[in-house]
Amino acid sequence: MHRYTRWSTFREVALWIAAAPVLAPMYFVITTALRTPGETTGSPFAPPARPTAGNFSRAWGQAGGDTVSFGQALLNSTLATVTVVVLLVAAGAPAGYALARRGSRLSSLIFGLFTLALILPIQLGLIPLYVFMVETGLAGTLAGLVLVYTGLQMPLAVFLYTGFFRALPTAYEEAALVDGASPIRIFTQIALPLVRPVTAAVAVLTGLFVWNDFFIAVVFVGDTDRATLPVAVYSFVGQFSTDWPLLLAGATIALVPVLLLYAFIQRSVTQGFTSTLRG
User: Fold this and answer.
1) Half-sphere exposure of 90 (CA within 13 A, CB side)
2) CATH homologous superfamily, domain 69-243+257-278
3) Distance between CA atoms of 56 and 215, rounded to whole angstroms?
4) Confidence band (pLDDT; 50, 70, 90) for 269?
5) Average pLDDT score over residue span 216-221
6) What does each C-alpha distance from 169 to 166, 178, 194 come to in angstroms?
7) Digit-coded pLDDT (tens) for 1-33
8) Which residues cross the membrane (predicted)?
9) Where are the domains of the chain?
10) Each residue of 29-67: pLDDT tens digit?
């Protein structure tokens, strides 16, 4: 029996064609990171004539300039991402459960406000928020950055959790309530385990936002020792010229942790997005 049939061959070719717009930029980034500075004037899609890995060591040593090292920026991004995801799950799940199980007008109004917050750009309140962070001493600190990210991503977390909890049947919760279980126990031991897929979706969506964000980080931590990876990589952009192999080598290093994490949790991520769409 042949491995490929006419239909399977057509399907695989179609998938490769559909993946080309995603793979082409990755190819461009990696090949440029392996070039010497003199090779950047040729075709961007041609393989490097003399591949070199020296750009990666240079990027690790020079990113961030005199304010923050690449390793410190990597640690800052990791701490910010993990902390924000934990806070969103810890606060978003109970909030979504309460909004889903209470059918009052106040709950509907609060949920509508969270939904409205999804479409409002951060630029609308950026100046008052920055003034507040400066007056409270949180500007330029990792705690302040985490606070801003948590507030920005909380509407998304509450929106996803509320929709998923509304789709869950209440039979198990009602049975536990008859047996004398407290509301907190019902939530932690019955409802929360049933929404693991949406928890994975919330973690991935919000985690990627925090890890890749440049605008919020450059505004609230800027050129300090609390700078995150995108800000550190941006230090390679010059006013009059840019060393593209060095810049893209730094971007590749910043991409590696995300790819490694996804390799370990890809099954949970796929189940999370599938369940969220179904819910």
Assistant:
1) 7
2) MetI-like (1.10.3720.10)
3) 24
4) low
5) 92
6) 8, 16, 10
7) 456 677 778 888 888 898 888 888 888 888 888
8) 12-30, 79-100, 109-132, 138-161, 198-221, 244-265
9) 69-243+257-278
10) 888 888 887 776 666 677 787 888 888 888 888 877 777
